[in-house]
Amino acid sequence: MNISKKEKYTIITPKSNSVNEFYTQLEGKLNSLKEEHLIIDFSENLNIKIEEIALFLKLSEVHKQNGTSFVLIYDNLDIDDLPEELIVVPTITEAEDTIDMEAIERDLGF
After folding, report:
1. What pLDDT digit, counting tens, does each position of 38-89 carry?
2. Which InterPro entries match (predicted)?
3. Where are the domains of the chain?
C-alpha cells in the first residue's frame, strides 16, 4: 500500500487488487493513523464489489468516533446500495471537499 501524507489528510492507495488483503494491511497500520483524516483511493481498481467496500464500515465508524474523516474513492458502484455511514465519492476533489465539510460540521458541533 502507498501512504502519502498531505497537509489536511493522508491518502492511501492499495498496491494489490485484493481488497481483503488491503483491508488486513490497513487494519495493521490503523493505530498509527487514527488521528489522521484518511482517503482510501480505489479509483484504479476496476472490479470491487459492494460487499468489499462495506468491509470499511467499521473503520469508518472508528474514525468518526475519533473526530476524523474516512472517505473512499471509487466511482463504479451505486451509492444507494451502500450503508449511509460509509462515504464513497468518485474523485479526489470530492473526497477533499467531504473532509472540509466534515471539519465544518465538527466545528459546529454536529
Report:
1. 999 998 877 888 888 888 998 899 888 889 999 999 988 887 888 888 999 9
2. STAS_dom_sf
3. 2-108
Q: Which CATH number fits domain 2-108: 3.30.750.24, 3.60.20.10, 1.10.287.3510, 3.40.50.11460?
A: 3.30.750.24
Q: Are 80 and 52 in contact (CB under 8 A)?
A: no
Q: What Cα–Cα distance (Å) separates residue 15 from each residue in 23, 41, 66, 73? A: 12, 11, 27, 15
Q: Are 73 and 91 in contact (CB under 8 A)?
A: yes
Contacts 24+ apart (CB under 8 A), 48-51: 48/19, 48/74, 48/76, 48/77, 50/77, 50/81, 50/82
More confident residue, 91 or 44: 91
β strands within the chain, DSSP E: 2-5, 10-13, 38-41, 70-73, 87-89
Amino acid making up residue 92: I
Q: Rounded to two decimals, what is the model's pTM?
A: 0.90
* Phi, psi dihedral angles at 45 (to 5 degrees): -85, 125
